# Entry
Amino acid sequence: MGGFFIGANMIELSVDKLLSWSLYPEISEQKLINGISDISHLYTQERDELTEWKWNESLITSYTCFYLPTNFQKFSFVLDRLPSSIQSELSELDWIDFGCGPGTYTLGILDYFPEFKGQISCIDKESFMLEQARRVIRGAFPDRLTKVSFQNNIRELNSEGSVLLFGNSLNEMSAKEVLQTVTRLKPKYIILIEPGTPEVFYKLMDIRKTLSARSFKNIFPCPTGVEFCPVYTTSLQEEKIDWCHQVMKTVHHPSVERLSQKAKLDRKKMPLIGHVYFFNDIEGDSLEESHNMDMKSFRVIRTITENKHSFLWDVCLNDNKTLRFEIPKRKMKKPEIKELGMVCAGDKFSYEVVKEIDDRLWRVNLI
# Structure
C-alpha cells in the first residue's frame, strides 16, 4: 500500500458544526431527514432527472449535513493508497475541484495536506453550491480560505500541469464531457472519486480508453497501470455484469450516525470507485520505475470469505490477470488476523506463491 504521507487529519464533522456553516442553519431535524431521503431517491431511483433537479437552500443543507461528512472520507481513502512520492507532489500542485458541490473534496484536500502549497479552484454551475462551499471552507479553515477560489466555469483558468478532481461529478456528466474538460484544462493528474456502481464503472472504462491513448497512465487502482482492466475485459467476454470498485469502512460522528439511522441509510460501509491517472508521454519511461511500484503485488478486488483457517480474496495482479487467493492464517498472530479482517477492496499487498491449486485459485503468503 502507499505510504501514509502527511495527511488524513480527519477534521471532526458533527451535524451541529455543519449546520452552523450551512445555508439554512435553523432547519428542523425532520426537514433535514426528508431532504436526505429525497436526495437519496434522486440519485438511486430517478437518475434521469438529475440534470433537471432544482437545488434550494434546504436541500443543499441536507446534503451538506449528511453526504459531505460521509463522502469526505473517500478522499483520504484513495490518497492513502498512492505512493508517498506522488502524495508529496500532489501537496504542491494546484487543484481544480470540478463539480465541487458543497466543498466536500476541497475540504478533503485541505485536511489531508496541512502544508498544502497550491491553490484550489472550486467549480460548480450552482451558485448556491458555491456559496455553501465557501461557508464550509471558511468555517473549517478560516486561515486558508485565500487558497481557494469559487467560480461557475473554467473559462479563465490557467490550469496546465494541475490536478483535476472529479468528485461525484459523473452522475451529471457524460464521458464525452469529462474528456472535453480534460482537453481544455491539460492536467498532470486526474483523480476521480465516484459511486461504486456498475454504471459508473462502465462509463469510466470508456474514459480510461481515451485517456490511455492520450498518454495518461492509471496509477490507482491497477497495480502497474495496465492499459485495460481485466475485470472489464472478462465481463465483456463472459457477457456478465462485473465491476472493479473499492469498499470503505467508516466511523462517523454520533450525530451523523443518528441522521443515518433516522433516514435509514447505511454509510458505514460504502462502495466507491477511485481512479488516479498521471500524464506520462516520455517514450520508454516505466511507470513501475517512475512510481516505485512493487512488481510482486496485487490489489484486492473483493473479500469473499473468512474462516478459521484462511481468508479468500479475489485479486488483480500486475500482469493484467485476476485470480482468487487463499491466504492461510496458520503463521499469523491474532493482531495480524484482526487487521486483515478489516481489509477493504482496493488495498494493495505483496505476496509469495505457496501453491497454484488450479488456474484460478492460488494459495499465497503475504510478505
Summary: Residues 29-45 form the longest helix (17 residues).
